[in-house]
Amino acid sequence: MATSFLQIDNLTKSYGDRMLFDGVTFGVYEGDKIGVIAKNGTGKSTLLNIIAGIESADSGDVTFRNGLKVGILEQTPRFAPGSSIMDACLLGDNAMCHAIAEYETALLSGDNDRLNEAIHDMDAASAWDYEDKMKQLLGQLNLHDITASTDNLSGGQAKRVALARVILGEPDLIILDEPTNHLDIEIIEWLENYLTRSRVTLLMVTHDRYFLDRVCNKIIEIDRQQIFTYEGNYDYYLRRRQERIDAITSEMAKVKNTLRKEQEWMRRQPQARAGKAKYRIDAFYDLKKRSHVDLSDDNVELNVKSSYIGSKIFEARGINKRFGDKVILDDFNYTFARYEKLGIIGHNGAGKSTFIKMLQGIVPADSGEWNVGETVRFGYYSQEGIEFDDNKRVIDAITEIAEDIVVNGDVRYTPMQFLTHFLFSPTDQQKYIHTLSGGERARLHLAAVLMRSPNFLILDEPTNDLDIMTLGILEDYLAKFKGCLIVVSHDRFFLDSIVDHLFVFEGDGAIKDFPGGYTDYRTWLNAQPKPQAEAEKQAAKTVRERPRRSSDNRMSYKEMREFEALTDEIEKLNTEKAALDAVFNSGEVVDDIIEKSARYEEIKALLDEKEMRWLELSEKDQ
Predict the structure, then answer these.
(1) What sign results for the dihedral spanned by CA atoms 137, 142, 145, 148?
(2) N or C, fewer C-beta in 10 Å, the chain?
(3) Cβ atoms of residues 490 and 383 within 8 Å
(4) From CA 154, how far away is CA 580, in angstroms rounded?
(5) TM segments (predicted)?
(6) Selection from 300, 308, 329, 304 nearest residue 317 by Cα
(7) For residues 509 and 329, is the Cβ–Cβ distance under 8 A?
(8) CA angle 600–604–607, rounded 5-degree value
(9) Which class is domain 4-90+125-237?
(10) Residues near 453 by Cβ (< 8 Å), separated by ≥ 6?
C-alpha cells in the first residue's frame, strides 16, 4: 500500500459570500504526480497556499506525514534583498552553507591563508558534494554566474533560481504553482524530463497541457466548489471528464422529466392528494432541489471579428538591431502575407519581445525599414500588460478607452455589456483593479485589445495567466481569426494549435523560418546530429574499455596512434587530478593553493576535451 504523505479533510474556503470550495477531501500518496485544474478564480492557487501554510482555511484539516520534507515553488519567487544566486540556493543557517559561501568568497579574494582555511571548513562540513551539485544544476538551468544579485533577475531567471533552490533541498513532496510561467521552452522541457524521471511526489497547478500530460499520473479538478479525481494523465482526464458531464446531463434530463410529472400531482387539489404517502411529497422537494443544479459553463465569449485587412501587410528591409555587443537582428528581410499566423520561439533574452515592439514602432531599429500596410490595425497583448490605474474600477478603465464599443462592423456594446463576455459580472466590474487576480487581469487585458476589432493580433506570452478553459476558447478563436497573427509563447500546445510556421530566434541575430508547429520543429530538431557540446555532456568521465563495433568506419593509422596516446594522456591527467584531490582533502595548509587550484581547473578542462575526442574515435573500428 502506498505511503500517505498528505491528507486533506473537509477543507472549506470562501471570500465574503463567494465560496471557492466546500468540504474538500483527498489524499496525496508517495509517487503521486498530481495536477490541479480549475477555472481562474475557483481556488487552485488558494488550495495550494492553504496546504503550504501561506493562507488559512475557514475549516478543515491539512495533515502531513511526520518528518516529511516539503519544497514549495511559489508563482512569484521571493528572495532576500541583496542576496546572490548562491545565497538563494544555500538552504538554511548551518555549517555547510556558511562553508560554501566563505569558500566562494575566498576564491575571489586571492588571499591564500583565507582560502586554506575555507578549504578546511569545506572538508569539515562535507560541503564539496553539495557545491558541485549546486553548480551543475544551475548550469543546466543556464545560470552560470552564481554571484549575480537576485535583485536584478528577470522573471524567467528568478523562476529558475527558485526551481534550483527547491530541487537542491531534496524534498519528498514538491508543491508547484505555475512552474512553467516565464520559462523558455528549453527549460520547460528540461523540467518536464527531470520531474518525469524523478521519484519525487508532486502537487502542482499549471495550465501547460503538454506538461500535465507528460508529467502527471493523477488530475484533481475543482468544479462547482467540489473536487473530482481522475487516475491518469491530462488526456485521460479529458475523456473521463466528458463521460462524467454526459452522465450528469443524462441524469438531470431524467430528474426534470420526473419532476414534471410530480409537479402535476402536486398542483392538484389537496383532496386529490389526501392520504398519499408523505415520502412522495418529500421526494418532490428533493427532486426540485436537484433540478436546480447549474451545469452550464461560464466561458469567455470571443465573438469579435477582425476588421478588413488589405493584401499588403508589412515588409521588413535590412533591419538591424543590437544592444551593445548583443545582436538582436542582423540584416533581417521578410514579407508578411495576408492571414499568416506566425509563432516565435527562442531562449529568454534572444530578442523575441524586442522584435514585435520594433514592428509596431515601439522600439526603433538601428537601420533598415519597416513598411506597414495602410489597412493594418494592430492589437497588442503585451507580456507586461496594459498599464491600468490600479485605483480605478474595472468598468471605469474600459469606459476610458471607449464609451461605445462597435465590433464586427455594426454590433454595438456598452462597456458593461462588453465586459460580461469576458466573465466580468456587474459586481466584478465594480472591483478595483488592484484587487484582481492574475487571470482576471489577463481577461481585462484581452478585452481591452479585442474591443478595437484589430486585424493584426500580436500576442506576447498570452498564456501565462489564463486558465485551460479560456486558453481553449482563445485557440479556437485564433484558428478562425480572419486576420494576421504573431504570437510569442512558450506554450507548446498553444503553438501547435494555431500557427502555420515558426521564427526560431537562435541568437546573435540569426532567425530560422521553420514551416510547421512546435512539435514538427522538435521532431526535426531531434533528428539532427547532436552538436559537439551535447556529445561532450554525454561523454564518460572515466576511460572505459573500448567496445567492439562492426562497421566500415575504420580508424586510419594516424587515428589509431592518436587513440593510444589519448588513453595514456587521460590516465596521467586522472592520476594528477586524484593527487590534487588528496592535497585539497588533507586538511593541511597548502602554500601554493592558488596555483594548484588553477592547475586543477586546467586539468578538468583538458580531461573534458580529450575524453570527448577519445569517445569520438572509440566509435570507429580498428
Answers:
(1) negative
(2) N
(3) no
(4) 39
(5) none
(6) 329
(7) yes
(8) 135
(9) alpha beta
(10) 304, 305, 306, 307, 377, 406, 407, 408
N- to C-terminal Cα separation, the chain? 54
Model confidence, pTM: 0.73
* pLDDT per position as a tens digit, 309-351: 888 899 999 999 999 889 999 999 999 998 899 999 998 888 9
Q: Using the structure block, give the residue that is written with the C-alpha cell 447549474.
A: 294
Comparing 4-90+125-237 with 314-527, is the CATH topology the same? yes
In this predicted structure, what is the pLDDT of residue 535?
46
Every domain of the chain and the residues it spans: 4-90+125-237, 251-290, 314-527, 531-622
How many residues would you count in the chain? 622
Closest CA to 55 of 172, 171, 175: 175
* Phi, psi dihedral angles at 229 (to 5 degrees): -110, 135
Residue 304's nearest CA partner among 405, 415, 424 is 405
Class of residue 264 by CB neighbours under 10 A (exposed 0-12, middle 13-18, buried 19+): exposed
201's grid cell: 511526489
10-residue mean pLDDT series, the chain (622 residues): 90 87 93 91 87 92 93 90 88 77 82 85 83 87 89 90 91 93 91 92 93 94 88 89 79 69 62 57 64 57 72 92 91 92 91 92 93 91 81 90 73 84 86 84 87 89 84 86 92 93 92 93 85 47 37 57 82 86 70 75 83 74 57
Cell 575504420, located at residue: 554
d(CA 403, CA 399): 5
